[in-house]
Design a protein that fits this description.
alpha/beta; Rossmann fold; 6 helices; 9 strands; binds S-adenosylmethionine
Length: 218
């Protein structure tokens, strides 16, 4: 029992299969697929559950939260069009799996989590497994104004609407990716900041996330 950071042939093989599964499901960005093939998702699971780590499924991570399913992580990552050195705000750190994928894509990541236990665990685990990000504890529905503006913002919990305050923290040319809907299902929404006051919004596929709680959310 417990968390172990060992990458065996079985896990390596399962990771390769997962990449092929995501490709079949429509993920085509080779950089994103490479990142999924690199981040060791089983490191976020108790060893007892390593046989679940490379299934395309969400999984409980404690505190009533989940590690997102790999397809969702890949889908959101693809929509962000990360370029090396992009400054990215991630709202909803959770266990940090998505954070690692963003870091593999070359982003500088500012990530915020409202649950203290998850925040503490993740900010200890990530450097231990070789990933450096800036960790914050608090209500991410308001963004992090002190470090704005960002090239990209990703929200990994379901919001009732697009918080306007987040749009203000985007650079011109920047992209926000956020699931928007009710508690049962959300549509993935991308917003491109075209100019100071102009935003292009696209509504995409349906997903199911845990709720974004906070001042600008539920
Ligand atoms: N990104 C994670 C991954 O890689 O698997 C999954 C994140 S989980 C689906 C959503 C997270 O958002 C939860 O850990 C939850 O506590 C957090 N959350 C919800 N509302 C939040 C808020 N207002 N600010 C920061 N984090 C929030």
């Amino acid at each position: 029992m417990g968390y172990k950071f060992v990458d065996n042939y079985r896990e390596k093989g399962a990771r390769k299969k997962l990449v092929e599964e995501l490709r079949k499901k429509g993920i085509s960005d080779e950089q994103v697929l490479k990142a999924i093939g690199t981040v060791k998702r089983h490191y976020f699971f108790d060893e007892t559950f390593w046989n679940q780590a490379y299934l395309d499924k969400a999984f409980p991570i404690g505190e009533g939260q989940t590690i997102s399913n790999p397809y969702t992580v890949a889908y959101q990552s693809e929509l962000l069009h990360i370029k090396k050195g992009d400054k990215v705000l991630e709202i909803g750190t959770g266990c940090g799996y998505q954070t690692c994928v963003l870091l593999e894509l070359g982003a500088k990541v500012y990530t915020i989590e409202r649950q203290e236990k998850l925040f503490e665990r993740t900010r200890q685990v990530l450097p231990h497994i070789g990933y450096q990000a800036e960790f914050f504890l608090g209500d991410g529905s308001k963004g992090i104004a002190e470090h704005a503006p960002y090239d990209k913002i990703i929200v990994t919990a379901g919001a009732p609407l697009v918080p306007q305050i987040l749009l203000k923290q985007l650079k011109i040319g920047g992209i926000l990716v956020i699931p928007v809907g009710d508690e049962k299902s959300q549509k993935m929404v991308t917003v491109l900041r075209v100019s100071e006051n102009d935003f292009d919004k696209i509504v995409l596929d349906t997903f199911r996330f845990v709720p974004l709680l906070g001042d600008q959310a539920w």
